[in-house]
Design goal:
It is an enzyme of class 6 (ligase). This is Tryptophan--tRNA ligase. One of its GO terms (biological process) is tryptophanyl-tRNA aminoacylation. By secondary structure, this protein is mainly α. It folds into 2 domains: about 5-190 and about 300-340, HUPs (Rossmann fold); about 215-295, Tyrosyl-Transfer RNA Synthetase. Helices cover about 55% and strands about 5% of the residues. The chain has 15 helices and 5 strands. The chain has a 3-stranded parallel sheet with strand order 1-2-3. It has a two-stranded parallel ribbon with strand order 4-5. It is elongated, with a radius of gyration of 23 Å. The two termini are about 25 Å apart.
Length: about 350
């Protein structure tokens, strides 16, 4: 039996994973996977808060498979990783119900990312499920009694809600949950290729982990840069410039980055050279992922088995958590009392 603490993180199956996911949480998932018993959720119930058409639901399976492949390609070890499908564990809904009275509506309304999610999804009004997104996320974290949650900046406020709920549950009913710790990424938010917002699938300003070398080159050459620099001999701004944000995050040649910054500030290098070298750096960064992805993709049924086995393993853990919660709250005793009153054995 494992003595490791647990880690929980994951993504909604709304599309492929991108560089923003990598710097926000995947790099930490990879670094922490040996230290923790690692659970990775395919959060298809969360997907329903903004994408709930029959077409979106029908596409979730294929997207889930691609998402797991992205994680494996990025360095998650299948021997150390438990991938599971959220909707295949109905006990999570019960945990969500048991937790939802431990947080107030005004507390949830103060989370700015929920309004951003509604706006990005084209919702004029916030669905009830989206307002409760952090409570369901708390259920995800607490259902496996996770100690660590490596997530991006957008989810930091959600993890704080989970921490508050865990503390309130423990205070009301006795120590049942560890209070999960947020593990932030080194690059909190990666600006999109358009320079106007964070990298986001819904906006389309992304470089995917699975992009080909030519796709990366095309996207990089079209990237937003210093708008005031119309010629290469004009000194440019490096700070906040998306091209240099990406160089800092993904170019392993630090001397090259320093040289490009110096010449850019002095007006001695053009955007074409800066972007060409960035495309080469990102492709060098992604090439090992492409190779790993091809290896896993060639193993027929491998990803599907990972998901099925991981889901069954996780459901056993979650069932135990539901039992622990009901015992702590005293809920199990209510029906047991009625059974005893009727002379029905209590199992």
């Amino acid at each position: 039996m494992t003595t490791k603490q647990r880690m929980l993180t994951g993504d909604r199956p709304t599309g492929r994973l991108h560089l923003g996911h990598y710097v926000g949480s995947i790099v930490n998932r990879r670094a922490l996977q040996r230290a923790y018993e690692s659970y990775f959720i395919i959060a298809d119930l969360h997907m329903l808060t903004t994408k709930n058409s029959r077409e979106e639901i029908a596409a979730a399976g294929a997207r889930a498979r691609e998402m797991v492949l992205d994680g494996l390609a990025a360095g998650l070890d299948p021997e150390l990783s438990v991938f599971y499908l959220q909707s295949a564990i109905p006990e999570v809904a019960e945990i969500n119900t048991l937790l939802q009275n431990l947080v107030t509506v005004p507390r949830l309304q103060r989370i700015p990312s929920l309004k951003d999610m509604a706006r990005d999804a084209g919702k004029e009004e916030m669905p009830y499920g989206l307002l409760g997104y952090p409570v369901l996320q708390a259920a995800d974290i607490l259902c496996v009694k996770a100690h660590a949650v490596p997530v991006g900046k957008d989810n930091a406020a959600h993890v704080e809600v989970a921490r508050e709920i865990a503390r309130r549950f423990n205070a009301l009913y006795g120590e049942t949950f560890p209070v999960p710790e947020l593990v932030p990424g080194e690059v909190p938010t990666l600006v999109g290729t358009d320079g106007q917002a964070k990298m986001s699938k819904s906006i389309g300003n992304v470089i995917y982990l699975s992009d080909s070398a030519e796709e990366v080159r095309r996207k990089v050459m079209a990237m937003y840069t210093d708008p005031n620099r119309v010629r290469a001999d004009i000194p440019g701004r490096v700070e906040g410039n998306p091209v240099f944000v990406y160089h800092d995050a993904f170019n392993a040649d630090r001397a090259e980055v320093a040289d490009l910054k110096e010449r850019y500030r002095a007006g001695r290098v053009g955007d074409v050279e800066v972007k060409t070298k960035l495309a080469a750096a990102i492709n060098a960064f992604l090439e090992p992922m492409r190779e790993r992805r091809a290896e896993y993709e060639a193993r027929d049924g491998f990803v599907e088995r990972l998901i099925v086995e991981g889901t069954e393993r996780t459901r056993a853990v979650v069932r135990q958590t539901v039992h622990d919660m009901r015992e702590a709250m005293g809920l199990n005793g209510i029906y047991a009392g009625f059974r005893r009153a009727c002379g029905v054995p209590v199992g």
